[in-house]
TrEMBL record:
Coiled-coil portions: none
Gene Ontology MF term list: carbohydrate binding; catalytic activity
The protein's name: Uncharacterized protein LOC109021169
GO biological process assignments: carbohydrate metabolic process
Pfam families membership: Rhamnogal_lyase
Amino acid sequence: VVLDNGMLQVTLSNPQGFVTRIRYNDIDNLLEVLNEESNRGYWDLVWSSPGSTGTTGIFDLIEGTRFEVIVENEEQVEISFTRTWDSSMEGKLVPLNIDKRFIMLRGSSGFYSYAIYEHLEEWPAFNLDETRIAFKLRKDKFHYMAMANNRQRFMPLPDDRLPKRGQTLAYPEAVLLVNPVEPELKGEVDDKYQYSSKNENIRVHGWISTNTDPPMGFWQITPSNEFRSGGPLKQNLTSHVGPTTLA
């Protein structure tokens, strides 16, 4: 499925609803072409049974089974990728009907996405530990990350976290850069939690390409925090080495 307004082109798999390609400014794909199509732009969640403790949830890469056009006119297009639940899936899939939506407007250099989660009263209880949309950008294009005026920098490459270039520390997310591609980063510790932010401060974050003319940004914009749990001071991930951006 292709959304195209003459300025931006977004390709999604049908009926899964994975974002497989974003074409902009004559760059064929801003997403990491080395990744599988299901690991470029996607919605996911982590769920667990009631009473579960710790981080023992089940990861679910949300894969649609039905595609539908919701709105199609000269001003906008809205499309839907849905997955429905029934009792035969109990214990295998989170008990939710899920509807992933994508919207493109005329004359806009971006697109919108949101999801509708429906849980019927008679369905099993569960914990929804986490849900988000994620984008994996091209590592050969996006090297500069920005979260705020005082939180932006050139970032290590994902290769720098691999065993030949990095040393894992007390937990997997923290890696000492011992032989990074860019020597000036040697001795730094890369950890995605360094770039987390309070809910109240997560408005815009993303990446800037450093080898395109002109430079180009890929920005995750959060217009409202109404959907977030945990209150305004809860910390959430934003962007980190990948290049990855989350919402």
